[in-house]
Structures are given as C-alpha cells and as structure tokens.
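sorry for the late reply, my laptop died twice this morning and i had to redo everyting from scratch. anyway the thing you sent over, i finally got around to it. pasting the sequence first so we're on the same page, its 415 residues, then the predicted structure underneath. double check i copied it right bc i was rushing
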Amino acid sequence: MDMQQVKKQKLDHHGDQILDASQCHGNIPKVDAILPGAYGESDASGNPNSKARCESSFCSQISVSNDLCQRNSADDKAASTSENQKQKQGANESRDGPTSTNEIQAETAKNEGAANDETTPGNEKNVCPSETSPATKLSDSTTTAKLEPLPEPKYENSYAEKLLGIEDELCQSLNHLFFYEPVTHVYNPLIYASETHSQFVRKYCKSTKPILFLGMNPGPYGMAQNGVPFGEVTVTQDWLGISGKVGKPFRENPKRPILGFDCTQSEVSGRRFWGFFKNLCKSPETFFKYCYVHNYCPLVFMAVSGKNITPPTIPMIQRMPLMSICDTALCEVIQLLKVKVVVAIGRFVQDRVTHALKDQGIEGVRIEFLMHPSPINAKANKCWDEFAMKQLAESNVLQYIAPTAATKEENEEAK
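ok and here's the structure:
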C-alpha cells in the first residue's frame, strides 16, 4: 500500500474493526501500531508528516487504563436510562419567550456599546478578525429582558446524564477531524479526565440553568489538567470540591505534560474567574443555583514546541468543520438547560454563539459579553474583577449571582 492510500485511511481502525463511541464505556483494546505518518510522525520513507489526528476520539485514548478512561457500570446504566428518556421525550426542551416589546427595547438600548475591545487568548500575531470586530448581538426579537428566579431544584441527575450524553456525541463527531501544522498535538480532557469532569457535571448540573457562562476551550494548566472548565488546580480542589484520577492523552507532548492535580503551574484565567465568583458568592452552591460553566470546544491544540493554539488561530479550512460540530453541540446544551442568557467569555465565543443560535433558529436567548480573564489580554491584567463586576451588573446577570453586590453597584452608578 503506498503512502497516498495510507493517508486516506482513518486512524481509528483497530485491525479491521472501527471503534465507536459506545466502546469508551467498555474494555478498550490496545493498538500495537499506528499508521505511518500519523500524529506528525515520520512515514516509512523517513519523511515527516505534519498531519495530527484529533484525539477527541474515544478510541484514540487507548493507552489510558480502563479505570481512568471508562465510567463505571453504574454510570453506564444511568447513561442508558438517559438515552431512553431522551428518545421518548425528544431532543428539544421548551423555553420561555420574550417579554414585552418595551422591556426588550429598554434592555437592548441599555447594553449597546457595553462591549470592550479585547485580544483573544492565543497567538496574538494571528488574531481572528472576529476578535477585534464590534460586538454582535441577536436581534431584538430574540432578546429577553428579565430573568425570573427559579424554585430550589430537587436532586435530579437526569440533566447531568443528558449533558454527558451530548458531550459523548460531540467527541464522536470530533473524531472524524484532522488537524495540520501548526497543530501537532490535540488533547481531549473529556476523555482522559472523564472521572473528574463527570464529577463536576453531576455535582453542579442537577437542574435547568438560566445563565450559561461559556468559555472558548480548555487552558493548558486548567481544564486540560483536570477536566473542569477554567479548572485552576487549587480552586478546583478546595472550593469546587473536585478531585480524582486523571489519565493521559494518547499522544502527549513532552513539553505540555498532563499531571492532573499534581500540576504546580497555576492557570491565570481560571484563578481569576473562579476567584472572582468565590469572593462574590462565598459558596459554589450560590453560584450554581442559576448558573453553569461550559466550554464551546473541548479540545486543546498545541504546536510541537508546546505552544498553546487557540481555535481562532487555526487555519480556516480546519476551523470551519470544527466550529460546525461545536455549534451544534452548543445549541443542544442551551436547549437542554433552558438557558435564557449566555455570558460569552471573549469575542470569539460571542461571535460563535450568535451565529449558532441564528443558524439553528433558536430564539428567546440573550447574549452578553464578558471580558476574557486571560493574561494575554492587557485590560484583564489591570483590573479584570472590576470589569467583570461592571459588565455583569449592566447585563442584569449579577443580581442572580449576588443580589447584594448588584444593589451596591447600582447605588454607586446612581451617585
């Protein structure tokens, strides 16, 4: 077989068998060899091949031991039950419609011009145009002006299991993607950190969530290490109460090792994000009563040097299919959790959620902007907490997280 034929083959073959998502929960066989040229390695002739296989595949994490990569049998039964319920009930959840026209117009006018310019985390020399363009928002007809408090939810894990099911399908779809230079390594913490990620979802996603904080993708020292969005190690353990075993990606970049909770490098974005809400809410339960935190894309991209590569800086020809898949999954999450307000963390995310909702014809969801806390963002390095407080107050979100702080902010503005 010549190299052209080899390159056309998919890398998820195990002998003559193609592994599918369902096998992640069972015994995962080990593959003795990888096709020549895969993952940027040299082919049979010794020539380097820049093609990097997307490791979001369930089957690509074969080197992780079964007790790390798979969920236990109880989880399998719960997931199976969730799937049956999903088939009976349908994929779409009902949601509240817009309020009166006057309220909508007032809320829209209030938020015009509130967005700040920002540099997206990643390669600052190759910034996606959407990152520096003016903020985009949905039309007035899709805007809701007010959130109504929800009753205290009962302990119900069906939302968590359905969310995990959406993520499983997302990973299966991402399995078909290939990435080329500058991307040489792709990590998927939903796979190798499935134990801690599932723990986070089941602990904090027990009900509908009218407010969704949406990040871009895992940071190299945060979610990449433990599976928790913005998961700075210390705050993840001490405040969120998440701990457990973390495995290894199938092909690890030695310059970006996965150490789990033994990672000593602090994720600045995560420390700022969760530190802000820790000071504001005091307890995770207060924050998660109405809110949830999710990432638009679950994958971590990096160059051979170990440099972090963000989705906006991936070449368009590779980025388009990635965004199409992530857009679909995002809309499913929004519908499942009956989200009324998406707080987009960064311009790229704001652009993607706006496009996704319009493309899917989903109405009744308001999009608000929150400056990204990344250290690459010069404004965030000065006083991100102050920017966050102001933006959340102006968007009418702060009152559902910390009513006292919202009242104080309004009083100061009145003065």
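Residues 3-74, 86-148, 150-155 have pLDDT under 50 and may be disordered.
thats about all i looked at so far, will dig more tmrw
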